[in-house]
Write a structure and sequence with these properties.
The protein is of the alpha/beta class. It is about 30% helix and about 25% strand. Strands 1, 2, 3, 4, 5, 6, 7, 8, 9 and 10 form a ten-stranded mixed beta sheet that branches. This is Substrate-binding periplasmic protein.
Amino acid sequence: MRHSRRWIHGWLSAVSLLLVGAVSAAETVKVGGAHFPPYVDKSNARESTGLLPQLLEALNQEQSDYHFTMLPTAIVRRFGDLQRGRIDMAIFENPSWGWQDIDATAVDMGLEDAELFVARDEELRGQEYFDQLQGKRLALYRGYHYGFADFNSDPEFLTRTYNANLGHSHDSNLLMVLRGRADIALVTRSNLYDFIKRNREHARALLISERIDQVYHHHAMVRAGSPISPEAFAALLERLRAKGELERIFSPYRIAVMPVVVGSSAAARAED
């Protein structure tokens, strides 16, 4: 009996060591998380919620070679964090959003969102209201790159040229429009419909443009020397896409899940 107990104890110890070894063998991949609802919502000081945590959870459940973890960053700080190696990846990006001179590779995620113009719905106001931006008060998100401004995110340029108020919240910008403190807000489509879902009483008070400032295809920016290669990350995304996981996570927010064109992913250097 004593020998049996020793054998069982030894077997359990061996299994525990194997499990610990398997966990420790996983490469940690640090993903930057900047406040960008509904992708990352830091309204809770203790933890972030949103689509990025959901995606990282799905990636971790899909395989055991890598452990994806989110580290806090900021819209304007994320470039430096990636260059210094504080983070390995920035997700939900576009190579044209200031990444041109940074040593990183763009991976097409096959996710499509857009930037829309939103005004207060008033009598006799129609879609033509969005044709001309000059002379209107714009509510913009500080640090964002807008198509109408040729992707120039410089605060002084936007304030001087477009009479822009630069905030840190899409919700606040929409409330400025509703309260008459701004004429037009530019809002990410996914965030706009999330706002309407949370604030149904404001739905009929908003005029949403048919004009689109930009349609953007989300990319992951993977730094040189990252624990995971761009090709390996692209392959993991394809596994989630094939299983319907990307559709489950993103479609409720009107983020289109698209097929990735062969050769478009893990081939574009941000500096090119």
